[in-house]
Queue: 2 jobs
Job 1
Amino acid sequence: MLRIIQIITNLFPVWVLLCCGGALVWPEAFTWFDRPFIVWGLGIIMLGMGITLSIDDFKQALTMPRSLAMGLAAQFVLMPSSAWLIASALNLPDAYKVGLILVACCPGGTASNVVAYLARANVALSVLMTMCSTAAAILLTPLLTNWLAGQYVPVDGWQLFASMVKIVLLPIVLGVSLHHLFPRAVKYILPIGPLVAVIVIALICASIIGANTATVKESGLALLGAVVLLHSMGFASGYGFARLFGYHALVCRTVSIEVGMQNSGLATVLARSHFADPLTAIPCAISAVVHSVVGSILATIWRTKVDQEEISE
């Protein structure tokens, strides 16, 4: 059973792609998963991330400050900068520009850990980077979004910060507490956590796409091109940034995945909660599909390369 769950979980991009594609054809099948479900669903994902963490994980993070600092710099400098450049260069509506910037200012997504595993990268570093970027995002996501997107629409940085505390910080703190208070119960829950995250993210993205099918079809190619460009720049710049600091291939792959894959679910919730124009959430929903597909392709290439190297040895 655990093996089946793992296989289903590893097909994450397939489920997101199928659900979003289905939402374009049959919106009503997914639009029922609206704001209350989206907010609670993301809270459950963050809670699931929290129960995987222990105090020892935070101690381990302190033993590798250089790697984590480099990863955080890449996460919150390269991606937001890329989004701002793309938003400035392309003639997209302001709502799409803001959505693009918002998703780039969010932390790494939990799906990055799955892709790091598939790519045979440094999974431990991936988990720690996701953990640290999520913690840092409580402050940095509101600040960066306000700074970079405020020129297009008014951004309430304090409200964004309050949402980050409620949606991210509190569930993770609760999860870490449960990890220590009820270790036996957590042990049974852990295997299904990633699968629940996959289901919720797929439903969140499909719900947003389904609620805006006409708009997505009308400007789909231009918006899709912008999102593909954003994540491609993220994967490439993340790898190059780590290489610039002299890290070996496995660390470079890990940083590439962490920078290229954002927490699109969080971005979608923030877009729906804090921006009047519902179109702001569309780039965030499309982002989940794009980064999952691109990340999975890279994982396959890197995994194949590792396998060939092992055979040659």
Job 2
Amino acid sequence: MSKITRLQAPLTEADVRLLKAGDEVLITGVVYGARDMAHKRLCEVIDAGRELPFELEGAIIYFVGPTPARPGRVIGAAGPTTASRMDAFSPKLIAKGLRAMIGKGYRSAEVIHALKKYGAVHFTTIGGAGALLSKHIVSAEIIAYEDLGTEAIRKLRVVDFPAIVAYDANSETVYKEATR
């Protein structure tokens, strides 16, 4: 049985440099939910030299577009989105201090290079299990880009959110045929 590492967000570079591809983690703390349209806007804000809606240093972004919350719940189903949709934006965000991302599937060679260069990781979690994953989200609040609807940026408080290190800060991956 493998050891499970408990992580407290926000993360430090030292936190993620200790992680290895295949490690199982439980994340507690603040994670930001955002998908491709929000990522595009974040990069436009960086390019314009304006202030971001949240601190990127040490942050974790979960690639999620949750469904509406049912009565008595803080969020609806919250399963991971395909990570490659964020590949055009991720290197710029990682360079600004983004420490980790959560999604599903492969990442580009540019993202893998940025993970290694800046000391960041990409986590994967179970696709198709959005209802189960939402039980680890104890609060959810839209903090930016409300006009994007489900793709708005959300500040999510998570407790023991389960993930696996898919790409570590040494360019190792659980995906054997991934591009390097």
